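W.,

You were right to be curious about this one. When I first looked at the sequence I had no strong expectations either way, so I just let the prediction run and decided to look at it fresh. Below is the sequence, 201 residues in total, followed by the output.
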Amino acid sequence: MLPDDVTGEELDADARLGLRSLPKDLAGRVARHLVVAGRLAEDDPELAYRHARAARRLASRVGIVREAAGIAAYHAGEWSEALAELRAARRLGAGDDSYLPVMVDCERGLGRPERALDLVKSPEAERLDPMSRIELRIVESGVRRDLGQYDAAVVALQIPELRDRRLRPWSARLFYAYADALALGGTCRRGHRVVRPVGGG
């Protein structure tokens, strides 16, 4: 059920533009479901996913809808559905390369680390913006740990941004991921050279 206070106008302009191929009334209903899905993504991912699926049932041929359904499925832990939706979004001209880390994490969640690493090495990975590229490295480090490749998990995060003296939007996540990789792998105790992040102790 859709809240009365959600009109669909809350959807950002680019997303509304993606719904322009739909009849006006239908576009409005789909937009309302997408707005609610976005609002609930963190607090109630299961309900958010249900709203995203409702939007998908109404407009399965709209790329922006499939993209939203994929992200909602990811937050709900529905890895297979998330992959399918994001792939469909790409085919429909919506989903972009920035969702590659999400797709890698889905493959990891499905217990397919080799497929995850294939995506890490894909041509699309070369086109990522800095924030998405760092997110991809963080996910790759997790995949390496799953495979017992603890040194490789550390090396995956030894990137120039680790020494950046300016705090960036990704700094905290990168530092924490690096610390976790070191702790789980015991790299320090084995006498390997360790790159210390700026401000990381």
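Here's what jumped out at me. Residues 176 and 200 are 9 Å apart (CA to CA). And, maybe more interesting for your project: Residues 24-40 form the longest helix (17 residues).

Coffee later to discuss?

I.
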